Amino acid sequence: MAKTVKIGKSDVVSTPLGLGTNKVGGHNLFPNLIDEQGAEVVRAALDNGIQMLDTAFMYGLGRSEEIIGNVIKDYDRHQIVLATKAAQDPHQELKPNNQPQFLTKAVDDALLRLRTDYIDVFYIHFPDKDTPKYEAIGALEKAKEAGKIRAIGVSNFSLDQIKEANQDNYVDIVEGKYSLIHRDAEQDDFAYLKANDISFVPYEPLALGLLTGKYKDAKAFGEGDWQYDHDSANFSGDRFYQNVAAVEKIRPIADRHNVSVADVFLAWYMANPNISVVIPGARKPEQVVENAKALDLRLSEDEYQLIDETFKG
Ligand SMILES: NC(=O)c1ccc[n+]([C@@H]2O[C@H](COP(=O)([O-])OP(=O)(O)OC[C@H]3O[C@@H](n4cnc5c(N)ncnc54)[C@H](OP(=O)(O)O)[C@@H]3O)[C@@H](O)[C@H]2O)c1
């Protein structure tokens, strides 16, 4: 049986590999997305042993959730772990809103779009400035008591904000930016999360494609490219080439196991005790099939350490 992980203090259990779906219907974030291809991406995940689907209202302002809702009606709902997020308020220019009333309605709206009667993990996508965090979490605790959600999460919260949100011990899971080339969470968050039985899901685990090994030339990136606009420091100059060199140092491990370098990095996250579920995004179903091979990849201790050290330098 495939390895599974338990989410925080909840009874949600998932395979350690999930799917990020910001390119499933996320037309407001990325150009040239095709909805039918997005649906194929979701099907490829569910057909290849992936349980957690990580979506959000923000991905297409509901479109990603709708595409997922349409696909999952053909599958056994109990084999799927649905994770979604809300905070961006369409009535306030998409500024974060954590007011209990807003979050309560956001849960109900997401249930309708996902065509389901429960959501496994519901995250507050971004903190707002004014709402006391325990009040926001209190709204989600009520949704949990009502059986509408099964686990409570926060995303893009600083450690102080996580602590405030967790003052009643209700937070099960945190989603934050983390990859082998963005390692701040190791210093900032991991000790507190572990001590408080809170799971961690890293977003952008493939560093927007850098850790797939497919990029070689910094000149391919500039203003207007979504990767550069998102992370210009790593997609330009010396840093870009340092990243490429680090990935190439790991390529022999991929060759030895007959998998892609992306699979090696995904297996590294899955072997990392600080990480719960890893949710690489995908534009095409073939990428999902390739990434799902990581579920069967076991790195040796030496391989694990080499990857760790290569990306610390
Ligand atoms: N909570 C938050 O605020 C937040 C923020 C960002 C993301 N997220 C979540 O985290 C998920 C993961 O982050 P991400 O998708 O932005 O970045 P990522 O996982 O680092 O990179 C995913 C991208 O890499 C490329 N890729 C994936 N597998 C590949 C393969 N096998 N071969 C070649 N290219 C491959 C695809 O892009 P191309 O084909 O276009 O190159 C894919 O869209 C998102 O989908 C979303 O669910 C959450």
Automatic annotation (TrEMBL):
SUPFAM superfamilies: NAD(P)-linked oxidoreductase (SSF51430)
One Pfam family linked to the record: Aldo_ket_red
Taxonomic superkingdom: Bacteria
Family matches, as InterPro entries: AKR, AKR_Detox_Biosynth, Aldo/ket_reductase_CS, NAD(P)_OxRdtase_dom_sf, NADP_OxRdtase_dom
Signal peptide (from-to): none
Domain NADP-dependent oxidoreductase span(s) in chain numbering: 16-309
Record flagged with keyword Oxidoreductase: yes
PROSITE patterns per the UniProt record, alphabetical: ALDOKETO_REDUCTASE_2 (PS00062)
Keywords: Oxidoreductase
Keyword Lipid metabolism: no
Name of protein: Aldo/keto reductase
Organism: Schleiferilactobacillus harbinensis
Lineage summary: Bacteria, Bacillati, Bacillota, Bacilli, Lactobacillales
